[in-house]
């Protein structure tokens, strides 16, 4: 079910074009690690200015997310979530 919620279009819509593109840079430099996948959620560590813990999950049919960065704490889908979702 989770794989149906995650698409490039969904991630870019949630993050916005600028954050999505910045997130793409993280993947190209190998910043995503410790990836764990279960049926209903994906967890990873994303290296940026700091190390962030990121989670994508099924939130009752919508893509739900969490990241330890300040942008996600303010309620935004951050570049770390966008990058991690493209793995």
| Distance separating the two termini | 16 Å
Strand content: 25-35%
**What is the H-and-E element order?**
HHHEEEEHH
Structural class: alpha+beta
Spans of 5+ residues with little confidence (pLDDT < 50)? none
The whole-number mean of residue pLDDT values reads 84
Rough outline: globular
Let me know the largest β-sheet.
4 strands, antiparallel
Tally of individual helices: 5
Spatial arrangement of strands, main beta sheet:
1-2-3-4
What gyration radius follows from the Cα positions, in whole Å?
11 Å
Helical percent range?
40-55%
Protein architecture, described:
The structure is a single chain. With 87 residues, this protein is of the alpha+beta class. It contains five helices and four strands, in the order H-H-H-E-E-E-E-H-H. It has a four-stranded antiparallel sheet. Strand 2 and strand 3 form a beta hairpin. Helix 2 crosses helix 3, helix 2 packs antiparallel against helix 5 and helix 3 crosses helix 5. The longest helix is centred in the N-terminal third of the chain and has 12 residues. The model has no long low-confidence stretch (mean pLDDT 84).
Briefly say what this structure is.
This protein has 87 residues and is an alpha+beta fold. It has helices spanning 2-5, 8-15, 17-28, 70-73, 79-85, and strands at 32-37, 41-47, 51-59, 62-67.
Features:
40% helix, 87 residues, 4 strands, 5 helices, alpha+beta, single chain, four-stranded antiparallel beta sheet
How are the SSEs ordered, and which strands pair?
Layout: H1 2-5, H2 8-15, H3 17-28, E1 32-37, E2 41-47, E3 51-59, E4 62-67, H4 70-73, H5 79-85
Antiparallel strand pairs: 1-2, 2-3, 3-4
């Amino acid at each position: 079910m989770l794989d149906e919620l995650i698409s490039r279009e969904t991630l870019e819509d949630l993050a916005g074009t600028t954050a999505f593109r910045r997130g793409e840079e993280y993947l190209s430099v190998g910043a995503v690690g410790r990836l764990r996948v279960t049926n209903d959620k994906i967890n990873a560590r994303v290296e940026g200015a700091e190390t962030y813990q990121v989670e994508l999950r099924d939130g009752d049919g919508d893509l739900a997310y969490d990241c330890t960065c300040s942008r996600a704490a303010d309620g935004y889908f951050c570049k770390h979530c966008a990058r991690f979702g493209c793995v």
